[in-house]
Amino acid sequence: MLLVSKEFTFDAAHNLIKYHGKCEKLHGHTYKLVVTVAGQKDDEGMVIDFVVLKKIVKENVLNILDHSYLNDIIEQPSAENIAEWIWEKLDEKLKGNNYFLYEIKLYETPTSYVTLRKEEKIDRL
Q: What is the CATH number of domain 2-124?
C-alpha cells in the first residue's frame, strides 16, 4: 500500500455562530489542505497521477471554497465541519480500481489542523 499526497491552499472567511469567543466574529484564514490517496501502483507505475489528483480537488473543493464566505456553504464552518464537507465532495471522486481517498488534513493555521481518515477502507484493495 502506497500513500500519495498533495497539498493545496485556499483563502476563506467565516464566523462560528455557535461559538462563544473571538472566533464568533467574522475573520479569515489561509487554509492548507493535504489530500492523501492510498492504493497500489497501476501499469504506469503510479497510484494516481498528481495532475489528476490536482484537477479533482480543484474542481470539487477549491473552486467552491477559495475566497468564499464559508458560512454560505457550511452551516457551522469549524475546521472539523469543513474537513467533513471536503471528504464528502472527494470520497466518490477519488475512487479508482487501485486507489481510494485515505486521509484529509485541513490546517486552519500553521500549527492547528484536523485529520480525517477512513481507516476501515484500507482492507478494500
A: 3.30.479.10
83-87, 93-97, 113-117, 119-123 — which is least confidently predicted? 119-123
- The domain locations on the chain are 2-124
- Tell me the pTM: 0.91
Q: Other C-beta atoms within 10 Å of 36: how many?
A: 17
Given a contact cutoff of 8 angstroms between Cβ atoms, the answer to whether 23 and 6 are in contact is no
DSSP string, 59-73: IIIIHHHTTEEGGGT
Each residue's pLDDT tens digit, 31-83: 999 999 999 999 999 999 999 999 999 999 999 999 999 999 999 999 999 99
The H or E element containing residue 81 is helix 79-90
Q: Which active-site residues does the annotation give? A: 23, 67, 108
Distance CA 82, CA 91 (A): 14
d(CA 35, CA 24): 28
Cβ-based neighbours of 63, under 8 Å, separated by 6 or more = none
Task: Read off the pLDDT of each residue in 85-104 and give the average, rounded to a whole number.
Answer: 97
